[in-house]
Amino acid sequence: MEFMGGFGNIYSELQMCVKKISERGKGMSVIIKNCLKFFYLSMSNINDWKGNYQRGLDKLKKIVSLDPDDPDIHWRLGVFYFKLNDLENALIYLKKAVELGSRQPKYLLWLSTVENSLGNLEDSSKNIEEILAHDPDSWQAWEVKGKNLLNMGKVDEAIECFNNALKINPKNTVSWNDLGCIYLDRGEILKALETFNKGLKVNPKNKALLFNLGLAYLKLGRYESAVIYLNKAEKNGLVCPEIYNALGLCYSEIENYDLAEKYYKKSLELFPGNPETIGNLAAIKGRKLLYREALELYEELIKLNQYDATALNNIAWCLEHLGNYEEAVRYYYRALALDTNNVSFRLNLCHCLFKLENDTEAIEHLEKILIIEPHNSQAYTLLGNIYDKNKLHAKAVDYYNKALGLE
């Protein structure tokens, strides 16, 4: 896809314009208009290069009043709005560029991209087919077509499109990344690793590829490798809640809880209400034996979703560790009401009932667990503990043997 750039020496060009104005009496307004247009266009390009998209947008808006029929200006405005994630305005200006610019492929391509982002897949697909009819070797068109098909759930056809884009332009890192993400989503982790690495051979600093490669290693359980690539993605400019959450997960798995907590907090600074990260941070607090702090975080999750069974179970777990067994039991029952067949929730309840010496109720729940999971060693062990405590030693030994698989 073509991006804007190449602004040249602005001031020398302006000096030439001023000289022309002084040499000509007539047509001064046209020359002034062209000078101003060149100036604002150059400034917008500078701001684009610097990533100051709003400033660049402001400069382009001034050009529209000077030359409202220039399709290229409408196209540039559409691109800036797209970069600012203002898709509705991007759509308006790109449609105007297509209308004024005789449906040039460059304008159609960007219009299709915005339509894809808005979920207007039918319109996006029609424009892409128009581009490919005139230029079947447009790798950008094959890339957008692949995205449309992927959003339609036609994964195999999308893969074919991304491969077509890569045949035309093997240095196209966008398609390497999209292809790798499909394999990652399918659970074909080794294939995803291979694909992301091929993209990184083209551009070793591509932050999307580095991030996704880190996620692939995370899914493989290779946490040290995941940290290396996630850190590289951050150093190359990727700042988002997802990368810090992923780093938190890695450090949690390698039991560096302080670093895990640091990254979860960084993620929450960018996305304060993210339930996944709040839950992850709460789990770290629990592992650090900070049960009251963990409890507060799980209570935040319940405020976000009162039907979150896992959060209810974890509130009960915190209360249990704080010695509030009766309140914990109430929360375990609330969790089980929402997820009746969850063996972990029911087992947690049984341990809490055991601490309350409510043996009869605990035995009833343990028997329900063994109907679902006949070889659950934890259930057999707890039954052994209950019967041992009640001096029914023969029965206790029987259950301990079952826990060990010695039936």
Record the SSE blueprint:
Blueprint: H1 10-23, H2 28-50, H3 53-66, H4 71-83, H5 87-100, H6 105-118, H7 121-134, H8 139-151, H9 155-168, H10 173-186, H11 189-202, H12 207-220, H13 223-235, H14 241-253, H15 257-270, H16 275-287, H17 291-304, H18 309-321, H19 325-338, H20 343-355, H21 359-372, H22 377-389, H23 393-403
Helix pairs in contact: 1-2, 2-3, 3-4, 4-5, 4-6, 5-6, 6-7, 6-8, 7-8, 8-9, 9-10, 10-11, 10-12, 11-12, 12-13, 12-14, 13-14, 14-15, 14-16, 15-16, 16-17, 17-18, 18-19, 19-20, 20-21, 20-22, 21-22, 22-23
State the main characteristics:
407 residues; single chain; mainly alpha; 79% helix
Query: What is the β-strand count?
Result: 0
On the 0-100 scale, what is the average pLDDT? 89
Poorly predicted runs of 5 or more residues:
1-8, 21-28
**Helix-strand sequence:** HHHHHHHHHHHHHHHHHHHHHHH
Number of helices: 23
Quick one: biggest sheet?
none
* Beta-strand content: under 5%
Based on CA inertia axes, which overall geometry fits? elongated
Any idea what the radius of gyration is? 31 Å
Distance between the termini: 67 Å
Instruction: Look at the helices and sheets and give the structural class.
Output: mainly alpha
Fraction of residues in helix: over 70%
